[in-house]
Amino acid sequence: MSGLHWQSQGEGLDIVLIHGWGMNGAVWQPTVDALSVKFRVHSIDLPGYGLSHSQTAQDLDDMCQQVLAQAPEKAVYLGWSLGGLVATNIALHHPERVHKLITVASSPKFAAEKGWRGILPKVLTDFTSQLTSNFKLTIEGFMMLQALGSPSARHDVKAIKKQVFSRPMPDPEALKIGLKILSDTDLRPALSDITIPMLRLYGRLDGLVPNKIAAMVSELAPASECYTFHSSSHAPFMTEHELFCEKIETFLVR
Fold this sequence. Notes:
Blueprint: E1 5-9, E2 14-18, H1 29-35, E3 40-45, H2 60-70, E4 75-80, H3 82-93, E5 98-104, H4 121-147, H5 153-164, H6 172-184, E6 198-203, H7 213-220, E7 225-229, H8 236-239, H9 241-253
Parallel strand pairs: 2-3, 2-4, 4-5, 5-6, 6-7
Antiparallel strand pairs: 1-3
């Protein structure tokens, strides 16, 4: 096994960027360019995605192990959406490898249930069935959903499409496994175990990770910090790029 595709840029404190479902590391390029002025920034294609499309992961733990196998000895982990689950899971099980943890538009439990806001199980089920017929169209729909409500939605989607589609399409099986992780994972009971510095970033207009869960997660992880981007939906690193990079830098240099 040749391993996952990694791209590294800059010098200094190591930061590992982990993309979301259906995406790949190319989605981070503007963020990499900005942060690599002061840090050593690594972007990764998860198993089955982008230039790692020939790799496979069975579940969340397997995915984390593959990331750690090539990761710096100790780094800041920044995960977006599904990538936030990967980053959080690494922080929970391998805290000695994590300097600081940042989650972006992510949730310890993506699926909605009574008393917990999230993605309705039917939406996740629909995505799974649509994947088998036309996964490119499904991902485009998912991208539209991410930019929904954002003032610069059209620009966001165009930029995300251009970056993501510059690399091979994800493996359909990897997409199904990713959706299963989003459906089944619940890290809420373990959040209080995280002792490393943690920053949680949200988009006020996010339809996938409703902003209202921010306060609920703050109760589960009282030591963590939290910030909500006013004009962003599910991709604040694209919608409010400069402010996003500023928030990251401030958190890291303290």
